[in-house]
Amino acid sequence: MARAIVRIPYSSEPDARRAEELAEALQPLARPLSSDDALEPLVERVGGARYVLLGGAAPGASELLTWRAHLTRRLVEAKGFSIVALEGDAGVLERVGRYVRGAAGEPSARKAFGPRPPWPGWAWANEELAELAEWLREHNAARPAAEARVGLDSLDWDTCAWHMLERLERLIARQGEGAKAVIWGHNAQVGDARYAGREGGEPSLGQLMREQHGAEGVLLVGSSAYAGSVLAAAKWGAPPAPRALAPGRPGSLEDALHRLGEGTDLLLLFGAHVPEGPLLAPRGHRALGFVYDPSREGPDAYVPTVLPRRYDALFFVDRASPSRPCAPAPGAQPRPARRPLEAAPGRRF
């Protein structure tokens, strides 16, 4: 059943007091995110759901990719999910999908992504996803021959939610009864658009999934980052480079989560019942794309969001670092793998 839309006037005015109020309201829903064990409450929350959508606040943030990859692995292992579908170039992801299912011809997932993926290839042709693809190939190789292989598929890189839904339904139908799907996309598609200032406008994939497949179980997981750096282009079509991520604006969701975690990464789980008050008041929630210039970031980069209605859960990273593209730009030095931040002692968590 679709949830009722909550309409409350949105204010983008910086307000430290409002951020503190929201941080206090969020504290009972948050837990530190420092190891894969911290994902288990979310895995349990999935239950028998057939669809889990994983949103990214920034395409070039390593930790946000890594946490989604780790959760995807757990869903495949513990819950029997058999489809991993991504927004990305169809040709590239078709080649990687064949590799994941065990086809010969490519020596590694990194090579399967190709030396020059189409712009903005770093959003999917990165080491974080390549590591997931290698794990999926090994997982498939260990399965009995009679069992279906876990696939890695493209949602056609089409920004129309209806087209993405049709593509996803075809993937599910192809695998048949019992198929379950993990879907990767931007927060803009994964979150429920009715709680992101888009009532009556273009729906998001998350909204359509709740409306049309809610009875089968749908979980929407968003993500957020307060500061650090990300991989992004200076302009459309330009090569990517690490760029400083401006601290979240005062009064924003990112500001509130930073105040709550005090430097700790967090996992937040939302229930069906949310009391009236700060949690149901729309707050600015940052959305980054392939192009980013921190010096030009303004209020329009923040989407008015009712957090526990737009998502069912949220990953929050206090300081992000740039993702690691499989094909670095000329002259760029490859970055070593980076583990998620450990929870700091002496803080709220």
Task: Describe the 3D structure.
This protein is α/β, with parallel strands linked by helices. Helix content is 31%, strand content 19%. It has eleven helices and eleven strands. The strands form two sheets. Strands 1, 2, 3, 4, 5, 6, 7, 8 and 11 form a nine-stranded mixed sheet that branches. It has a two-stranded antiparallel sheet with strand order 9-10. A hairpin with a 6-residue loop joins strand 6 (218-233) and strand 7. The model is unreliable at 1-12 and 330-347 (pLDDT under 50).
Short description:
With 349 residues, the chain is of the alpha/beta class. Helices cover 31% and strands 19% of the residues. Strands 1, 2, 3, 4, 5, 6, 7, 8 and 11 form a 9-stranded mixed sheet that branches. It has a two-stranded antiparallel sheet with strand order 9-10.
Shape: globular
Over all CA atoms, what is the radius of gyration?
19 Å
Order of helices and strands: HEHEHEHHHEHEHHEEHEEEHE
Q: Summarize the main sheet.
A: 9 strands, mixed
Helix segment count? 11
Unreliable segments of 5+ consecutive residues = 1-12, 330-347
Nearest-integer average pLDDT: 88
Helix content: 25-40%
Structural class: alpha/beta
Straight-line N-to-C gap: 35 Å
Strand content: 15-25%
For the secondary structure, the number of strands is: 11
